Structures are given as structure tokens and as C-alpha cells.
Amino acid sequence: MVQTSVPTAEDHSSSAQSNYGDALARWCVYTLGAFAIVNQGLDISVLSGLGNLWGTIAIACLAVIALVRVAYGLRRQGFRWSRYAGWYILYCATLILYGLKHPLLAFNGFSVDVEYIVIALLLPWVVESRDVPRLLYGVIAVSMLLGVDGVFQYAIKVPIPDTWLDVGEVVRTRVFSVMKSPAELGANLEMTIPMMFGLFAVDRHPARRFVYIAGGMCSLAALFFTYDRGSWLGLGAAVLIVAVVYERRVLPILLVLGVIAFFIPSIHMRVMDLFNPVYAVKSSAGGRMLLWQQAFDTMAKNPLFGAGLGQYGGYVATSHSLSSFSDNYYAKVLGETGLVGLVLFMAMHVAILREIATSVVRRAKGRNRWLALAGLTSVLAILIHSFVENLFEYNYTASLYFVIVGLILLWGRTLPESSAEMPGRKRGTLK
């Protein structure tokens, strides 16, 4: 039986070593959750040389803090899905040996695939339960700023490349904030919008509730202005699935909102274009369908182990002109690591969903349930969207995903067995 409460060592240890690096750990989590803004800030500063290193440095700091705390006797319980992550990481490490003919490619491919998983694995040892709410606030606040920036870009009609529009498509612009594409911004927003409204439902503090609702509405508008169908699909499908499984009462509301959205001209055009025969021909001739077929063909040459790390479908392979982006992260994993890698990767994320459902959603009562469902929706949205984008190739997205996974699971451990209120609150205020 897995414990669902914070271990006694966390609550009662009086040793200074158990809190070693407490402030640094919080700031590392803040920065990793705010990856996009921190990265942009470094790029335009004299520290631009850290652009490709600072995330790794932050993760290394968390690892050192965790190791020191464990060395001094701190005992914490990891997440249940960690075992699946361990098997996937071990398998990918083995593939480095398999790719010794191209060691740099293999190592870079390994880094891209597993680096940000480590964030969530470390969080139980570096984050105190009392800090989880403020960390959630900080991470979600950054996405609110991105949403506001997206609305501003739409208002000023920011210039975009012609390649971001389908043939014959006319839109004012497609927003991207500080990221490189609308898809990256859409992934960030689809993951954090549910959390904004979940925090609005849980928190009783009037000023913060206003910030949540205002930030949530701006972020929804920015998500719309990305005109990214994958983000719309991810969030819409995730909300629908969670509603069907846990909250059927909201289905009529979702149906009405869906009908209204469908008849907004720009949404209608983007959605109906998917059913255009010309789109299908183009997709099979040189678009996603062709790329997915190529992933299968690549895997077929070595079904169990694939082409090898860094050899197919992702950033490392494309930067060395070995292949194109697969535009489907599961296809990328299949082509690169074979059937074994895909099974282990999917098992890890299914285990994450299951742990959130059983350890957080099932325990949450009253208003807390809305935040629990929001966390489940956020994770599910990214996993659905990944069928049409290489989302875990984006360090912004991968970092934020695993930060949210870790924080929502740690928050679930603070929930009492039976309560309609969040622990530590007075007069309906979330601390």
C-alpha cells in the first residue's frame, strides 16, 4: 500500500540538513517552470551563452541538493510511476552503447529524451509540502504572462512567416509570444489553462481569484489566436475525456461551448480544412501522413530497437540532416528506439495518469477536486497533442510538463483523507 501522506521525516525532522538548499531548490523549480521566459531573458542578455546550459545546471543543482539530503538521512517516498521512468531511462542508456558508431549523436539523443524526466523524479526530495502551493502559483503566473503577451501580439498584428498559414488561409496573425512557434505556445497554454481555472475554484482569496480568472481568459484568447489545431485538439479532447469519466454534469456546457466555437469562422475554417481532399493529398505526399509512414519504415528495419538515439525524427537527427521532424512524438520514439522504447515510454505516461487519478483525484474532495481534475486534464492534453507534434522535443514543454506532474502529485499527498478544504487554509484562503 503506497502512502498517501507526507512522510514523517518531512514534517518532524529538525535537522538543518533536511532543509539543505531549500531556497535554491525553490528557485530552480521556479525557473524550470518558467523555462520560456528565462530562456528568452538569457538570449537577449550578456548571458546568452547559457541558453543551452542553464536548464541542465538547474537540474544538476536539484540532484546535488537531493543527494546531500539523502546522505544526511532524509527519507522521502518517490512516485509510483518512477519505476517505469527508470526502465525507460535505463533502456535509453543502453541504446547509447548500441549507438557507439555515433557516440555524440547517441548521447545528445539520450539527453533530449530523458533530461527533463529527472525533474519530476527529484521533486519529492527537494520540495517541501508547504512550498507546493506557492510553486504552483509561480509556474502558472508565468503562463498567464505568456497569455497576455499573446493577446498583445494579436492586437499589434505581429508579422509571421507565410509558412505558418495554409494555402488560401487568411487570419490577422498567429501568436507565439517568446517561443519559436504557435505550437509551442499552444502546448504551454493548453497545459496551464486548466490549472488556472482549477486554482480559481480552490482558492478563496478575492485578489488571487481575480488574477486566475483574468489570466485564464487571456490565456484562452491567446490559445485561440495561435490557430494551432493540435493545441485545440489536445485541450478539447482532454477536457471531454475527463468530463465523461469524472464530471458528466458539465457535458451540456461543453457541448454548447463546442457548437459555438465550431461556428466561429476562423475555427470552422481551420477544422474543416482537415477534411478537405486537397489537405489529405498534400499530407500523404509530403505532410504528417508521409512522416508517420517514414517512422514505421525506419522502425521496420530494426523493429525492437529502432534506428538508434539521435538517428530519427527529432531535433538531433534533423540538425544532422538524418531525417525530418516526425510531427508525432510517439512516431519519433518508435523510429528512434523501436517497439521496446515506445512501449516503455507510453507505459511511463500511462503510469503518471493512473497515479494522478488514484492518488490525487480520488482523494480530493469538495473544491479540491476541481484542481485535481485540472491537473489530470493538463497532463492528458499534452499526451494527446503529442500525436501531431514533437512536444517533448521542446525544452519549454518538457520542463513544464514534468514540473506540473511532480507538483500536482506532491499536492495530492497533502490532502487529508476526508476534507472539502485544502490543508493549511484559514477562512477559505489557500496558503
Automatic annotation (TrEMBL):
Task: Give the membrane topology.
Answer: Multi-pass membrane protein
Q: Which GO MF terms does the UniProt record name?
A: ligase activity
Give the superkingdom in one word. Bacteria
A single GO cellular-component term on record: membrane
Keywords assigned by UniProt, alphabetized? Ligase, Membrane, Transmembrane, Transmembrane helix
One Pfam family here = Wzy_C
Q: Where in the cell is it found?
A: Membrane
Q: What are the transmembrane regions?
A: 53-72, 84-100, 106-123, 135-156, 185-202, 209-225, 231-246, 253-271, 329-350, 370-388, 394-412
Q: Where is the O-antigen ligase-related domain?
A: 217-346
Name-wise, this protein is: O-antigen ligase like membrane protein
| Native source organism of the sequence | Alicyclobacillus hesperidum
